[in-house]
Design a protein that fits this description.
This protein is an alpha/beta fold and about 240 residues long. It has eleven helices and six strands. The protein starts with a strand and ends with a helix.
Length: about 240
């Protein structure tokens, strides 16, 4: 059964006539009717008129799906847009198109496609919407991959001692061995020994690789815990420097 929801009696009649003889239909003119019909009939398809928005718009897609999880929602809008179409599909809708551009034959075709498990969008938005959905998916995958990379990096960094972590961070900031030794009040020889151990633990071969590695892990600035350690080291150096 196809549930037709629109505040406009003319729109409901036009859609009902387009589907007559092909699909049984039921109509809903308001939000209360829509919710009762979804809960009672569990329709295969819901054709939802987004204009003038009396049914809550995109915000209500998930709420409607909770009333009838297996219902496939097709949204129709007077002035469809790519951004709204992407948001609709991501929210759970199975179709989105311009209300005024849908002929009876096209509406029947849309219902058939969605019943068969496809996502259907109007011709005017098809290529642009597909491109945006693909880009959105790629962005999500990129963020997920980056999150995994950071987690793997953090696991390796946890193998460093607190002092090794400090030195690795400072190399990431671009500081040289002499600057590091002065800040931490240790010899350059000790800095080099720490770096050798850091390279071994992280599987790196030189200072440049370490700098790039640390900036991939923390590209926006100093790690708070490490910064507190460095600040403390600077404070301890001040009396010694004055005494010298």
């Amino acid at each position: 059964m196809i549930l037709i929801a629109s505040p406009s009696s003319a729109t409901r009649r036009r859609w009902q006539q387009a589907l007559a003889g092909s699909f049984p239909t039921h109509e809903a003119a308001g939000r209360d009717w829509l919710e009762k019909a979804l809960a009672q009939f569990k329709p295969e398809i819901l054709l939802l008129d987004l204009d003038p928005g009396r049914f809550g718009g995109l915000r209500q897609i998930q709420a409607l799906l909770r009333l009838s999880p297996l219902t496939r929602i097709v949204l129709l809008r007077n002035m469809p847009s790519k951004s709204e179409g992407v948001a609709a599909i991501k929210a759970g809708a199975k179709g989105y198109c311009g209300k005024n551009s849908v002929s009876p034959a096209l509406l029947r075709k849309a219902v058939e496609r969605v019943r068969n498990g496809e996502i259907w969008v109007g011709r005017e938005l098809g290529s642009a919407l597909l491109e945006e959905l693909v880009l959105s998916k790629l962005r999500e995958e990129h963020l997920a991959n980056r999150k995994n990379d950071v987690a793997a990096t953090d696991d390796l960094l946890s193998s460093l001692s607190p002092r090794e972590r400090q030195i690795a961070e400072m190399v990431g900031w671009g500081e040289r061995n002499k600057e590091i030794s002065n800040r931490l009040n240790i010899t350059e020889k000790t800095v080099k020994a720490h770096l050798t151990m850091i390279f071994r633990k992280l599987g790196l071969s030189d200072r440049l690789q370490l700098a790039l590695y640390m900036n991939r892990f923390n590209p926006f600035g100093h790690n708070n815990e490490t910064t507190r350690g460095i600040s403390s080291a600077r404070t301890e150096q001040t009396p010694r420097a004055a005494a010298q």
